[in-house]
Amino acid sequence: xxxxxxxxxxxxxxxxxxxxxxxxxxxxLDDGEIxxxxxxxxKEAVAQLNDYFAKxxxxxxxxxNPKGTEFQLKVWNELLNIPFGKTISYLxxxxxxxxxxxxxxxxxxxxxxxxxxxxxCHRVIGTDGSLTGYAGGLWRKKWLLEHENPTTQQSLx
Length: 157
Known about the structure:
- This protein is 31% helix and 17% strand.
- It is an alpha+beta fold and 157 residues long.
- The strands form two sheets. A three-stranded antiparallel beta sheet has the order 1-2-3, covered by helices on one side.
């Protein structure tokens, strides 16, 4: 049976769902009741996400168990190959999947990613460098990319 936990993050409340087989969903909400007791099977995911937000972690090692079509799973698996602090375009993603013509399908699967942050769909941008589409809101995508940028710009003024 799956358990659910809600944790506070700098981007709102994260909902984490999973069981002994792995984490099946991590999503973001604008607000919600924070869980006081974390189920055993979700403790590692919670700890690793907290470390990510504290800039102590760049990747995740807990077990994933997303639900999706064969193509969606292939896309989400490819997203796991995008290094921390780097971005690729939707066209690059389609090419990595073996066919530039699947760009729209890849973008659609990217938008249905059930594992926020862990499967880094926020690292996929437009070919022109624009922050196109993000289920959690473009402000969250911008925040995540800035959070992961190793050379954070300081304001001159």
